[in-house]
UniProtKB/TrEMBL annotation:
SUPFAM superfamilies: (Trans)glycosidases. This is Glycosyl hydrolase. Transmembrane segments: none annotated. Residues 15-34 are annotated as: Disordered. It holds the Pfam family GH113.
């Protein structure tokens, strides 16, 4: 889940081609942050990260060519107006999080910890608007610095200070205090995971090392498995992102991107329930289009795909319809694209 007029670290305005992409496709890392090829492995229960499936999941993620994995410990608040955050049985235990970071490192994967705040049921965290913002931010600083210390202790390579909190992300001064508090405990690169319709309203990017975007842009007005058509849809988005990266002097990381294997996923990538009809070809085309559009661009810091397999017994969406590409054509797209 970061001015001089500089297009991107290592990329001048002249390097941008007509599509808004870097003229050279050679990766030129900026700000000391490696390009991410990763997967999110979220937890939905206290002991998920201690599941017997965990070592296999990490090996399978690594086998796609991924080099990163993101873990998402989650705290909750009961109502959008509340000022208190708390753990539940759905919060990964600290001990399990420490252990899975160690397992990921042993498997050859770098780690990002991306703590989430959620609401009960299907309520959107973007709707959080606490009645007492000062009290909420004080609680939030306690929450996020808890994980910043854990990230430092486990030598986690990257950390997100927040995810999709559009209802409060306009409080720039409060977020700068959050970031300062995190940096008191953690020395690695920092980002914030803004929703695709939120990132332009964030005014603290230059306090961070990377711009993070959860990249769920609709790419089509109807279901399609035409990857060339989807790539064309990315062109104007890419132009805007390249220009935004230049203005902020920060690379852009897709902190999340993903597509369910359901008919119509390219029309609403953020939806878990577009339809009940499997569409592996549409999911694979969407994977291919995103990588074709952004891999190697100097201003692009990579992607963390949402998501790998659900934990055994915990998935509400059948695997054949879910975000996971595991065992589907989209996984083969990754294996080909990330083989080099």
């Amino acid at each position: 889940m970061a001015a001089v007029l500089l297009a991107v670290p290592g990329c001048s305005p002249a390097d941008m081609d007509a599509s808004g992409h870097g003229g050279s496709r050679a990766a030129r890392p900026g700000s000391g942050t490696p390009t991410m090829r990763g997967f999110a492995l979220p937890s939905w229960y206290r002991t998920d990260y201690d599941s017997p499936a965990a070592p296999r999941y990490l090996r399978d993620i690594r086998a796609t060519g991924a080099r990163w994995v993101t873990f998402t410990p989650t705290w909750y608040q009961n109502r959008v107006t509340d000022t208190a955050l708390h753990t539940t049985e759905e919060t990964a235990s600290d001990a399990s999080l420490r252990r899975i970071v160690g397992r990921a490192h042993a498997a050859g994967l770098k780690v990002m910890i991306k703590p989430h705040v959620d609401l009960p049921g299907d309520a959107d965290r973007a709707g959080i608007r606490p009645r007492d913002r000062a009290a909420w931010f004080a609680a939030y600083r306690r929450f996020i610095t808890h994980y910043a210390r854990l990230a430092a202790d486990t030598r986690t390579e990257q950390f997100s200070v927040g995810t999709e909190l559009a209802g409060v992300s306009g409080d720039t001064g409060a977020w700068r205090k959050v970031i300062e508090a995190v940096r008191d405990h953690y020395d690695g690169p920092l980002t914030y995971a803004a929703n695709y319709d939120e990132y332009q309203h964030i005014h603290f990017w230059k306090d961070l090392d990377l711009i993070g975007i959860d990249a769920y842009w609709p790419l089509s007005d109807r279901p399609t498995s035409d990857s060339a058509r989807l790539s064309r849809a990315w062109v104007p988005i890419g132009k805007r992102l390249a220009a935004y990266s230049a203005r902020q002097s920060r690379r852009i990381l897709f902190t999340e991107a993903g597509y369910v294997s359901q008919r119509g996923t390219t029309t609403a990538p953020y939806s878990w329930t577009v339809s009940t009809h499997p569409a592996n070809a549409e999911q694979a085309a969407a994977y291919r289009a995103l990588l074709d559009s952004f891999e190697g661009r100097a201003w692009w810091a990579g992607v963390c795909w949402w998501m790998w397999d659900d934990w055994p017994g915990s998935g509400e969406t059948p695997a054949r319809l879910a975000y996971t590409p595991h065992g589907k054509p989209a996984e083969e797209v990754l294996r080909r694209e990330w083989a080099h």
